[in-house]
Amino acid sequence: MPQLFKPSANTLAKLSVILAGLLPVVVLYAGVTVSRSPYNTKVDIPIDQPIPFSHQHHAYELGIDCRYCHTTVEKTAIAGVPPTETCMSCHSQIWTNSPLLEPVRKSYETGLPIAFADGSPGWTKVNAVPDFVYFDHSIHIDRGINCNVCHGPVNKMQITWKGNDFQMRWCLECHREPEKYLYTDAANPNLSGREQVFNLYMKLQEGAKLTQREYNMLYKNEFRYSPNTKEIEEGKALVKKYGVTKESNVDCYTCHH
Ligand code: HEC
Ligand code: HEC
Ligand code: HEC
Ligand code: HEC
Ligand code: HEC
């Protein structure tokens, strides 16, 4: 009987069986890679806005406190984005003819929200967690966690981008080991955690000396910082002081209820 398959075809058949076996793994891996890439989560990519609002200009160079515009951040779950009136408190007097500020003036005149030139509503959301996740700003600020730890180097952004992916494992990394993230400003030990958050931006603007850790919190990814033994000891003392219960902090109910 003549051979139906040549040896080379046999090898090919074997190879395709192996490949088929690997396929689910490859697809799964590709899926995971895509869902974590900056494209999907838009991390580090400036988001198009109706007005090129610069945090570098306003928060860093002019030194306007975050709370002037994000008025509820230390008291409630949400930080809030400022209404047109907040911009007009300055821009009815300065830069009044800037074409960049036309959407602000239009909104002020019409009473409608700030919008893109084509009329679609503005301030595109940069950061969000899904509806089934509960998040609260006030408790994090109260524990002295700087905005930049979660949002990236906001005070350096010309156009705002998302600093972290806000996936569950990211939240849990800090909830599991809060002692690695809690800290006290040694130069201002009497400030509360909350005061310390905003004071750090003032120190930066005034050109005060920053510790390596503070520099890291403001500019680098805090999650790649390895605190030394002394810093971890300090963190543990703060865990006690604040009464952080690590068990309930990783409890599903804390974030999903
Ligand atoms: C003069 C007003 C003003 C000040 C001061 C200000 N912001 Fe903002 N912020 C805005 C506006 C307007 C937006 C919406 C447009 C944008 O995303 O850039 C915004 C957006 C943001 C966002 C993204 C919101 C989203 O859609 O997810 C973050 C995070 C943020 N600000 C953090 C800060 C921090 C941290 C500070 C202080 C260091 C600060 N802001 C100071 C006006 C301000
Ligand atoms: C406390 C005062 C103050 C507030 C509040 C404020 N700004 Fe400004 N803004 C300034 C000053 C001062 C400048 C000019 C900075 C410079 O060029 O040195 C400026 C510049 C700008 C520019 C650049 C204008 C140009 O033609 O280059 C834009 C855009 C802008 N602001 C948008 C906003 C928006 C949007 C808001 C509200 C969310 C806002 N500002 C709130 C003070 C303010
Ligand atoms: C522990 C991490 C964390 C810290 C610290 C933090 N944020 Fe946020 N922020 C978030 C998350 C998560 C969201 C998305 C919330 C949502 O979708 O409900 C968010 C959303 C925002 C928004 C969009 C509007 C809103 O309220 O949802 C603004 C503005 C903002 N943060 C500003 C700030 C400022 C200003 C600070 C510091 C004073 C700060 N954040 C500190 C995690 C943080
Ligand atoms: C850098 C550290 C850090 C990160 C990142 C972080 N948290 Fe927290 N979170 C804390 C600390 C510290 C507390 C306070 C725990 C306590 O005192 O018991 C807390 C408390 C909470 C609480 C309890 C609020 C309450 O009222 O009891 C919720 C909900 C929460 N975080 C959600 C989140 C979510 C969702 C994320 C991710 C999007 C997140 N956190 C990211 C440190 C962090
Ligand atoms: C510190 C806050 C926090 C805690 C605690 C937490 N989650 Fe989540 N969870 C999140 C966030 C944030 C997301 C959204 C992630 C995203 O947008 O991709 C999420 C998403 C999910 C999802 C959707 C699938 C996914 O991975 O995105 C499931 C299911 C889930 N959580 C289950 C749980 C269970 C079960 C527990 C307890 C063992 C738990 N979570 C504890 C913050 C938390």
Question: In words, what does this structure look like?
Answer:
- This protein has 257 residues and is mainly alpha-helical.
- The chain is globular, with a radius of gyration of 25 Å.
- Helix 5 (84-91) packs across helix 6 (102-110).
- The longest helix has 30 residues, at 7-36.
- The protein is 49% helix and 0% strand.
- It has two domains: 12-41, no CATH class; 55-81 and 123-255, no CATH class.
- It starts with 6 loop residues before the first helix and ends with a helix.
- It has helices spanning 7-36, 38-41, 55-61, 66-69, 84-91, 102-110, 137-142, 147-151, 168-176, 193-206, 212-219, 229-242, 246-250, 252-255.
- It contains 14 helices and no strands.
- Bound molecules: heme C (5 copies).
- Residues 129, 133-136, 139-140, 143, 145, 149-150, 166, 171, 174-175, 178, 181, 242, 244-245, 249, 254-255 line the site of one heme C.
Question: Can I get a quick summary?
Answer:
The chain contains 14 helices and no strands. The chain is mainly α.
Please give a handful of descriptors for the protein shown.
single chain; 257 residues; mainly alpha; 2 domains; 14 helices; globular; disordered N terminus; binds heme C
